[in-house]
Design goal:
The complex is a heterodimer of chains A (241) and B (324). Chain A is 36% helix and 24% strand. With 241 residues, chain A is α/β, with parallel strands linked by helices. Chain A folds into two domains: 153 residues, 3-Layer(aba) Sandwich (Rossmann fold); 65 residues, no CATH class. Chain A has a six-stranded mixed sheet with strand order 6-7-8-3-9-10, sandwiched between helices. A four-stranded antiparallel sheet of chain A has the order 2-1-4-5, with helices on one face. Chain A is globular and about 50 Å long. In chain B, 76% of the residues lie in helices and 1% in strands. Classes of the chains: A alpha/beta (241), B mainly alpha (324).
Chain lengths: 241, 324
């Protein structure tokens, strides 16, 4: 579904993403982990069309999308959420999600109906009329997901939708990610919450200094020497997770 | 139609009152006031399309206004049809709007505003210096040739013509509040990165908004030139005018259809009243309206940053909460 062929992104002298190759198949739930500054978000920015890579090729569903603008890639069915949430602050939750739905739908009335469905799916029903900027962070993270979902993506990049949430919010959003995946959306998830990642992801890719240093099932990753040295610090106990 | 929101009702009352005025009074001073309120309201609404709805706050809209005034005035002065001039003005403004929209696309907030100021200033210099074509800083008198085709109209006819322009501008804004394009523009205004992620071609949408805004502003400029009968570069391309377009919207409520017209009612009335009061012997005080203008602006920005319509909305929310 998505293939990255040796993708490199540099900022001046700094190589943020170095020759990363990746293969995502339809129905995957791929996790990306790595310490701060490892290039995870940059990788998302490159895939989603916010940065143009200096080298390499990105192919989405058989189409070379390298260098296409973000809106064009989104229209092809590949969209993302933002780590630092970017709600349309002065608009209601319903309008936020509806603008997402307008990506596929031409008529405002249809988009309104679709938005209601997505809002219910994401558990935002009671807040539909609230101004987006008035929501607490847990709900704003949900809104990010809802708005992206409303565009009916086939591949969705989730950038730390769990960061900064309390345990009950966390359970809720993990549940939501599962539901989205069950609906048939292929997911790539960046997350620091290892416990959640271990439970959610089918495969995990570890980035370090912009390079892919490991890839495998959660079990393989948890016992990978390089991952432990660079990131986990200690062998991650799956039983505890 | 009881479900119609309050601001729509206020607009209906406002436009109806303007339309009925000529049937009741024939006083030229009052008709002139109505015409100017509608015209400055329509021009501010045109500004609002870019500034309020799309978030492209320009302080150079006098550029498009000036293009419209010159296009109509020069055609009239050469014995040609001013309507043709009006159309040419719109064409030129669409080009100019597309250009500035495209060139300034990466500039945000104050930087965008500065680039638009520069654009208007350049046009002012061109109009002042290109004597062979524009008559330079002496300006262009518009000959009064009676008739609708030559846009030589009486005050009553002007009320209705300007009312039509105002309704056009109001209608465009209402469209932006209800349509797909309008919602996408709101997304662009609120956050461009997020809008891109939702498949919105932010650059194209911004240019479209600026172009529509420029076309409407030019139209207003052409009508103004024919109504007032004189065009000079230091006025029609002035930053004062650009600020006025922005200010009416800011005071009335940016990004609302009614806001620019409410702002115009307040500001134009205030200005007309003060000018009339401090004329003749007290003419030295004419400038006082600028001071009051400034004070009103400070008060609005400090206490009601969302403008008059924002205050109304806040009251309503409070009332609804009290009922709940």
């Amino acid at each position: 579904m998505l293939t990255l062929e040796s993708v490199t992104k540099r900022f001046g002298g700094l190589t943020a993403v170095r020759a990363v190759s990746l293969e995502v198949r339809r129905g995957d739930l791929l996790g990306i982990i790595g310490p701060n500054g490892a290039g995870k978000t940059t990788l998302f920015n490159v895939i989603a069309g916010y940065y143009r890579p200096e080298e390499g090729r990105i192919v989405f569903e058989g189409r070379d999308v390298t260098g296409l603008p973000a809106h064009a890639i989104s229209r092809l069915g590949l969209t993302r959420t933002f780590q630092i949430v970017k709600p349309f602050g002065n608009l209601s939750v319903a309008d936020n999600v509806m603008i997402g739905a307008l990506t596929r739908l031409q008529r405002v009335r249809d988009a309104r109906v679709e938005a209601e469905r997505v809002i219910a799916l994401c558990g935002l029903g009671p807040h539909a009329a609230a101004r987006a900027r008035a929501l607490p962070i847990g709900l704003r993270k949900r809104l990010e997901v809802a708005r992206a979902l409303a565009t009916r993506p086939r591949l969705l990049l989730l950038d730390e939708v769990m960061a900064g949430l309390n345990p009950s919010e966390l359970t809720g959003i993990i549940d939501l990610v599962r539901r989205v995946h069950a609906e048939g959306v292929t997911l790539i998830v960046i997350e620091h919450v290892m416990a959640a990642m271990m439970r959610l992801a089918q495969r995990i890719v570890m980035l370090h200094h912009g390079e892919k240093i490991a890839e495998g099932t959660p079990q393989e990753i948890a016992h990978d020497r390089r991952v432990i040295d660079a990131y986990l610090g200690d062998e991650f106990n799956l039983a505890e997770a | 139609m009881s479900r119609l929101p309050l601001d729509r009702w206020v607009a209906i009352v406002l436009f109806a009152a303007a339309g009925l005025t000529p049937l009741v009074v024939r006083d030229v001073f009052i008709l002139d006031s109505v015409i100017l309120i509608l015209l400055w309201g329509a021009l501010s609404a045109a500004w609002n399309v870019a500034g309020g709805y799309a978030g492209q706050v320009s302080l150079g809209h006098a550029a498009f206004f000036g293009i419209g005034t010159y296009a109509a005035a020069l055609m009239s002065a050469r014995g040609q049809n001013p309507w043709l001039g009006l159309a040419i003005g719109i064409g030129l403004s669409v080009g100019a709007g597309a250009m500035i929209g495209y060139l300034s696309n990466r500039l945000k907030g104050p930087y965008f505003a500065l680039s638009t100021i520069a654009f208007a200033e350049v046009l002012k210099i061109v109009a002042s210096r290109w004597r062979g074509f524009t008559a330079g800083s002496e300006g262009v008198p518009v000959p009064f040739r009676p008739g609708f085709a030559t846009l030589g109209l009486g005050h009553v006819a002007w009320v209705y013509l300007i009312l039509a322009a105002a309704l056009l501008a109001y209608g465009l804004q209402v469209y932006l509040e209800r349509s797909r394009v309008g919602y996408q523009l709101a997304g662009v205004r609120e956050d461009e990165d997020a809008a891109e992620a939702l498949g919105i071609a932010t650059r194209r949408r911004k240019v479209q908004a600026i172009v529509a805004s420029a076309a409407l502003t030019s139209l207003g400029g052409s009508l103004w030139a024919q109504y007032v009968g004189f065009v000079d570069p230091s006025h029609v391309f002035s930053i004062d005018l650009s600020v006025r377009f922005a200010l009416n919207s800011i005071i009335g409520g940016m990004g609302t259809a009614l806001g620019p017209f409410l702002g115009s009612v307040l500001i134009t009335t205030l200005e007309t009243y003060l000018r009339a009061t401090f004329s003749g012997a007290k003419a030295g005080f004419t400038g006082i309206y600028l001071i009051i203008y400034g004070v009103v602006l400070i008060l609005i920005v400090r206490f009601a940053p969302e403008g008059v319509t924002g205050i109304a909305a806040r009251w309503r929310t409070r009332r609804d909460r009290a009922h709940a």
